[in-house]
UniProtKB/TrEMBL annotation:
Its EC number is 2.4.1.1. Belongs to the glycogen phosphorylase family. It is found in: Cytoplasm. Its cofactor is pyridoxal 5'-phosphate. One of its GO terms (molecular function) is pyridoxal phosphate binding. Keywords: Allosteric enzyme, Carbohydrate metabolism, Cytoplasm, Glycosyltransferase, Pyridoxal phosphate, Transferase. GO terms for biological process: glycogen catabolic process. NCBIfam families: P_ylase (TIGR02093). CDD domains: GT35_Glycogen_Phosphorylase (cd04300). This is Alpha-1,4 glucan phosphorylase. Phosphorylase is an important allosteric enzyme in carbohydrate metabolism. Enzymes from different sources differ in their regulatory mechanisms and in their natural substrates. However, all known phosphorylases share catalytic and structural properties. Allosteric enzyme that catalyzes the rate-limiting step in glycogen catabolism, the phosphorolytic cleavage of glycogen to produce glucose-1-phosphate, and plays a central role in maintaining cellular and organismal glucose homeostasis. Its main location: cytoplasm. It comes from Pelagibacterium lacus. One of its GO terms (cellular component) is cytoplasm.
Length: 822
């Protein structure tokens, strides 16, 4: 019998005071009674915890009120399922959104404690790697800001992806121990624990009405235990929940085995469970790694769906209204197994028939696609799924049969049907997770206008023909609270002084700044803020790398995941060309540049790791060559994370967004840089296309092949040999790197990397090189007219308001989720 719906009615507490004196007293009380420290001997880490707990109390009041409001009004909830949530440090975000920055600063100053010192002490939560996870974090904050009731669901990684260090220029992966000293933001919810099964067999059970219900009997069980973190919106408008799952054993220790002397075996179950939530993206280049990745994805998907269904039944007592009260967004293919798992829960656990379960499932799910790269559209071996998730694979087969029958009825050809099929029969049978997410959702969205159009004609071309109304576009955005107001307070204050503070509540009001772009006095103040930010970054580079850079130089920045399609290789090769030109033509007036790189390469991605080594090898030569006269410096900052980005982005003059056209779904780094007054050099890829439209082509530097031209070159299978041989600067670079000029300890280190450009230049590094180099010289010319540069930089900031995650989430809420918001 389903649980009876409950009526939630509780008094709303009076809001706590947030003046400096009240905060001072509460911080001291937390330090004494929660941390257990006398202020005389307390260290900054103790003050940090006491301050977080004090701020957290105020968040909790609003958190509970937000939950009460959702229960009272029966508002539709949004559930955002993502394998990553790159939330970064939370204290400054929370204090700023609550409007308590100055009062907290004053309260701490009375103890001779600097708030900024505490902010730097807080560890970054190791819950993501790149743009996918940071987008999820921006979306959660925006959902709280515009009052969309929401939960984010993910995994509580103990060690994240890895902490990146450098050893002789090579990436070294070490555990990220962000939870070593606890996490004062989170709450363990022991009552919200669910059993997750793996393996076993499926038993058909005859029901009294003659129907057959399939019952899955897993061979292995693991508990998923919830840990909740509050996510506060701007001005404390609403507080939503990030719920992360921790894997724990059903039996922590098999005592009989332990007492019999099998001490290791007795802890085997505990170790197996802990493995699931230990590391983000374990290497899947071997069968064990693939199985662990699949276990992770099913683990958090199943736990989340069980929690969602439990909450819905608790409030409403029946499942027929599920799509009316629940919207589940699948962030990429990682949670795609949710489609089969929700069907199992509805049919096998709650007794619904296939037709009703399928109708509810499709109406509940929506899917966001983030990539056109085939390797990123996950597929899993059917044999692995049949062994690990036998019931879910049965359901996937049934869904596939239904979809293919529909395709046949609509007269589709065999070739189209094969492309639509959830089962890829080429080179070993595999379940296509992108197809599963597509057919099991009522909405499938891309994340930029170009990406969405390419989806319709590439990876989902035949599914689009079968379901022509399903694909839609939701261009990404970033939260202006973190990516302007918090990371760049100097610019925020300057904007407020010039156009008023309304933009803090409605970022699109920043367009008013456009009218001041030609004002010389404002340009000077804008440039002064930028220089202060560059001085701060220069200090970080000097402290971490021992490299002295001038804040008067042009800061040229590429910070993102290291991947061949993002073309850090193109960037460093052009730097080598510039190095050659500086030495060959010392009489010219060269623009001083500091080229900043940061980003992690996946642990099993050899070519990406080799590019990191190349950047560091080139840096070693260029930075120490007296002939360069300090005109070019190269710095690779290790362990890129949100906090490092918050220092780099406000300091950037030039933003490198140079991916191979047609391969970057959107990008959000491009938006953050432009919002902070950096000019973009990039291809017509991802959101660069829409940025160009809104910034004006005169305020962005575009180069290179278009997505259509890239496709033509690939279709014709044209070699790049003639391109390389026809370009003297390019040939000189390829030959120098390939011959070991930058790797005297191993002359052959980069030979294969360079040789590959002649015949297998899939990412168009050689074909775009001359256009990229010419674009960089255009940047030099712009930099030479500092007033014109400042005007362009101001217009970049002024015209980026539309690229806010608030706008994106409003579009999701209105057009996909049908959820209330403000």
């Amino acid at each position: 019998m389903p649980p009876q719906p409950i009526v939630y009615d509780a008094p709303t507490p009076e809001p706590r005071a947030s003046d400096a004196e009240t905060l001072r007293n509460e911080i001291l009380e937390k330090l004494t009674y929660a941390v257990g420290k006398d202020p005389i001997v307390a260290r900054n880490t103790d003050w940090l915890t006491a301050t977080i707990l004090t701020v957290r109390d105020r968040i909790i009041d609003q958190w509970m009120e937000s939950t009460r409001d959702t229960w009272r009004t029966s508002k539709k909830r949004v559930y955002y399922l993502s394998l990553e949530f790159l939330i970064g440090r939370l204290m400054r975000d929370a204090i700023s959104n609550l409007g308590m920055m100055e009062s907290v600063r004053e309260a701490l100053a009375s103890f001779n404690v600097e708030l900024d010192d505490l902010i730097e002490r807080e560890p970054d939560a190791a819950l993501g790697n790149g743009g996918l996870g940071r987008l999820a974090a921006c979306f959660l904050e925006s959902m709280s800001t515009i009052k969309v009731p929401a939960y984010g669901y993910g995994i509580r990684y103990v060690n994240g992806m890895f902490r990146q260090e450098m050893s002789d220029g090579w990436q070294v992966e070490l555990p990220e121990t962000w939870l070593a000293h606890g996490n004062p933001w989170e709450f363990e919810r022991r009552e919200s624990a669910y059993e997750i099964g793996f393996g076993g067999y499926v038993e058909p059970v005859q029901q009294p009405d003659g129907s057959v219900r399939q019952i899955w009997h897993p061979a292995e069980h693991i508990n998923a235990v919830a840990y909740d973190t509050p996510v506060v919106g701007w001005r404390g408008a609403r507080v939503n929940t990030l719920r992360l799952w921790s894997a724990q054993p059903v039996d922590p220790i098999l005592l009989d085995r332990f007492n019999s002397g099998d001490h290791v075996g007795a802890l085997e179950e505990s170790a197996r469970a802990a493995t699931i939530t230990r590391v983000l993206y374990p290497a899947d280049s071997n069968p064990a790694g693939q199985e662990l990745r699949l276990r992770q994805e099913f683990f958090f998907s199943s736990a989340s769906l069980q929690d969602i269904v439990r909450r819905h039944l608790q409030q409403y007592g029946e499942l027929g209204s599920l799509p009316d009260k629940v919207a589940v967004q699948l962030n990429d293919t990682h949670p795609a197994i949710s489609v089969a798992e929700l069907m199992r829960i509805l049919m096998d656990v709650h007794g619904l028939g296939w037709d009703q379960a399928w109708k509810l499932t499709k109406a509940t799910f929506a899917y966001t696609n983030h990539t056109l790269l085939p390797e990123a559209l996950e597929t899993w071996p059917v044999a692995l799924l049949e062994r690990l998730l036998p019931r879910q694979m049965q359901i996937a087969y049934a869904i596939n049969a239904m979809v293919l029958e529909e395709a046949r009825e609509k007269g589709m050809e065999d070739e189209q049907i094969a492309a639509i099929s959830l089962i890829d029969e080429n080179g070993g049978r595999r379940l296509r997770m992108g197809q599963l997410a597509f057919v099991g959702s009522h909405s499938v969205n891309g994340v930029s206008a170009l990406h969405t159009e390419l989806m319709k004609h590439t990876v989902f071309a035949d599914l689009h023909k079968l379901y022509p109304q399903r694909i839609n576009n939701k261009t990404n955005g970033v939260t202006p609270r973190r990516w302007l107001m918090q990371c760049n307070p100097g610019l925020t204050q300057l904007i407020s002084e010039r156009i008023g503070s309304e933009f803090r509540d409605d970022i699109e009001q920043v367009i008013k700044l456009d009218a001041h772009a030609e004002d010389k006095s404002f340009q000077d103040r804008f440039a002064a803020v930028k220089r202060q930010n560059k001085e701060r970054l220069a200090a970080v580079i000097r402290e971490r790398l021992g490299i002295a850079v001038s804040p008067d130089a042009l800061f040229d920045v590429q910070i993102k995941r290291i991947h061949e399609y993002k073309r850090q290789l193109l960037n460093i090769m052009e730097a080598v060309a510039q190095y050659n030109m500086i030495r060959a033509h010392p009489e010219k007036r060269w623009v001083p540049r500091v080229k900043v790189f940061a980003g992690k390469a996946a642990s099993s991605y050899w070519n990406a790791k080799l590019v990191i080594k190349l950047i560091n090898d080139v840096a070693k030569v260029v930075n120490n060559d007296p002939a360069v006269r300090g005109l070019l410096k190269i710095a690779f900052l290790p362990n890129y994370n949100v906090s490092l980005a918050e220092t780099i982005i406000p300091a950037a003059d030039l933003s490198e967004q140079i991916s191979t056209a047609g391969m970057e779904a959107s990008g959000t780094g491009n938006m953050k840089f432009a919002l902070n007054g950096a000019l973009t050099i990039g291809t017509l890829d991802g959101a660069n296309v829409e940025m160009r439209e809104r910034l004006g082509p005169e305020n962005i530097v575009i180069f290179g092949l278009t997505a259509g031209e890239v496709e033509d070159v690939r279709r014709q299978n044209r070699s790049s040999r003639e391109v390389i041989e026809a370009s003297h600067p390019l040939r000189e670079v390829v030959e120098a790197i390939g011959a070991g000029v930058f790797s005297p300890d191993d002359r052959s280190r980069y030979r294969q990397l360079m040789d590959g450009l002649y015949e297998h230049d899939w990412f168009m590094v050689a074909r775009d090189f001359d256009a990229y180099s010419a674009a960089q010289r255009k940047v030099d010319a712009y930099w030479g007219d500092r007033s014109a540069w400042n005007s362009m930089a101001i217009r970049n900031t002024a015209r980026m308001g539309w690229f806010s995650s608030d706008r994106t989430i409003r579009e999701y809420a209105e057009e996909i989720w049908r959820a209330s918001h403000v």
